[in-house]
Amino acid sequence: MATQLIKPYCGLFTLALNIPLAIICSMVTVTVFYVLVNVAYYTMISPAELLLSDAVAVMFANRMLHGLTAVIPVLVALSCLGTLNSDFFAGSRMLFVGAREGHWPPIFSMIHIHRHTPLPAVLLLVKYIPHTLINVVSFGSWFFMALATLGMLIHRYHFPLHPRPFKVSLPVVIALNCKAFLIHLHTSLTKCYLLCLITQRCPWPSHSSSQWFASSLWVCLCIQTPGTQG
């Protein structure tokens, strides 16, 4: 995503500074807002009521905002839409770069003539129905992001003197990985079967520099989940 910056070298901030600065600012901002929201919930709602409520935000709006109860579901939907939009933005760019490096067919490295967006990569993501995107692509994309993070740590260990455009503090990465192992995931057997297949390699019969690649989207094209239409 660093290549998508409009002005990677602007003023006093360079690529070595603005990428970590953007990560730190975004994480701090999101964390502060989440903490403030939870403090507001516990101020107006008791713990017992929180456990029994199916829509905590709606209950909070009933007691605090009174007439704005109907607005809360709309705001939640807009928040989900923004998250989905950012996921599509990041996913299509990764597919675009993979095709540019020879790991995908060259058509996915093409961009729109006027808007300069990776249109074929975006269309490949749009092809899947919404529940497939939610149940499969999210886990697969984060799994391969974890592998990429692990690869960077291994590369940093084996090549400590290799020049890098920017650096991220190693304790921060370790803390985030430790936090990820504390999250409990529950899913169905069919989804587990599909997610196991995501981690397998699929050969791409082309003359590109890389004959093998691992991608959740390509595996979704190669297989048909039991019990679904395909």
From TrEMBL:
<feature type="transmembrane region" description="Helical">
    <location>
        <begin position="68"/>
        <end position="86"/>
    </location>
</feature>
<keyword id="KW-0472">Membrane</keyword>
<dbReference type="InterPro" id="IPR050598">
    <property type="entry name" value="AminoAcid_Transporter"/>
</dbReference>
<dbReference type="GO" id="GO:0015179">
    <property type="term" value="F:L-amino acid transmembrane transporter activity"/>
</dbReference>
<dbReference type="InterPro" id="IPR002293">
    <property type="entry name" value="AA/rel_permease1"/>
</dbReference>
<feature type="transmembrane region" description="Helical">
    <location>
        <begin position="12"/>
        <end position="35"/>
    </location>
</feature>
<keyword id="KW-0812">Transmembrane</keyword>
<protein>
    <submittedName>
        <fullName>Uncharacterized protein</fullName>
    </submittedName>
</protein>
<dbReference type="Pfam" id="PF13520">
    <property type="entry name" value="AA_permease_2"/>
</dbReference>
<dbReference type="GO" id="GO:0016020">
    <property type="term" value="C:membrane"/>
</dbReference>
<keyword id="KW-1133">Transmembrane helix</keyword>
<feature type="transmembrane region" description="Helical">
    <location>
        <begin position="133"/>
        <end position="154"/>
    </location>
</feature>
